[in-house]
Amino acid sequence: MKLRKINSKGFSHVEMVIVVLVVAVLGLVGWRVLKNTSHAGSNCTGQTLNASANGQYVGSTGQCVTYLQIISIGFTGIQMPVDGLFGPLTRLNILTFQRTAFPTDRNQWDGIVGPKTWAKLCSLVPANRTVEVYNAQKAACGKATFNLPGDKGPTSTPTDYGFGWLNGITSDSLGHIWVPNMRYNSLTEINAKDGSLVKVYSDPSYGFKSPIQVTTDKLGHIWVANYNSLTEINAKDGSLVKVYSDPSYELNGPYAMTADDQGHLWVTNSNAFTLTEINAKDGSLVKVYSNYNLYGFSWNLASTTDNLGHLWVSNGNISGSLTEINTNDGSVVTVYGNVREYSFEKNTFNKNYGFNVPYGITSDNLGHIWVVNLEKDTITELNAKDGSLVKVYSDPSLGLKEPITIMADNSGHVWVVNILGNSLTELNAKDGSLVKVYSNPSLGLKSPSGITSDNLGHLWIVNSIGNTVTELNAKDGSLVKIYK
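The structure assignment produced for this chain is given below.
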């Protein structure tokens, strides 16, 4: 009988080699995890934080990312869940900050938080100077760039309308306006007729957790996108219909929500780069679309439907693309991009559409699709019928400065919200001509991030900095009221 050679530890030489290999592999895995995880320590300025290199899933994680998210919100006003995950919304905030902090150095506009970006984050004074921003800046940088009374800061109390960390807004068919408040995990309902407060919904049963977006379906229900769930409300009386959090829906950072004419709701999942289809009639799950190679989803933060029954999803990565889907069966029609993207229905390759971090998207009543390109300060117009490029708008007279949201009204006009320009651009959808750029400080546009229109012909815009809502008369752009 052959005897094994045993070493001093009681293992054979072969077993010892296996143990060494296993330890080495575990060590490498652990090193990679630690490398991608941020730790607060004394401060965070020595760490490089970024999104994932391939544009899929989240990148850096940890306490320093949490601090970074809070600080960047203080500078840009762009709201997002503070979850310690460096995903598409965190990257969007950093890109916006870098464009302001390094106006003449485009090389710094990369969405990566390295030494130079940290230096600016830790030396400049944020526009939104809350106690949360103060504490985060002090923890991440070792000091804050502004003072609070007694170094404690103001009491975190809502405004009269319950506003706090605003991003989304919508209107229903009953003439009411709905605004989610991320800071207070609540939802504000306003009567558009006179601007009076109807109610602030904050009961825990509604499941609000960092509510960031809101929309209305064709059945008269309100849908709110939370951190990893959806809340459905009856607009008629504000009663809770259901909170959707079942794992089968794969709601991972749900953001844009669009209702189609068939009574279905389409939800983009910004952290997972997937799309969830729900039957709004009974809330049942239809399907989760997750084939990246087929649908091209990447940082999918906005969507709209056209009059042909197609859904359009903007993919806000650096190269940028637009995915067109047939809502009848969920099949992909075309992925429009700046490279030679293939059209499945037309058997052709597409042209350069000028996409660069395409963000907001809308469709007009003429059958055209409009997309704002956040990083290039441009607008792309397409013909929904065949996907052909109509025009890329880039003239400086349009006043496009970090265009983040776009909306077409029923009067044939297109409205663009410029979060960095603190302004609103109005275009004639028929020929794309400029009507006017609204930038007067009296309008109260401070990091505006969302827009909707009511059935009275008025516009409602949420302002991220200052936590206010501006109401304008769409006919002439005159101010109706600023709600605080």
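Interim note for the steering committee: The domain at 55-151 is CATH 1.10.101.10 (Muramoyl-pentapeptide Carboxypeptidase; domain 1). The mean pLDDT is 86.
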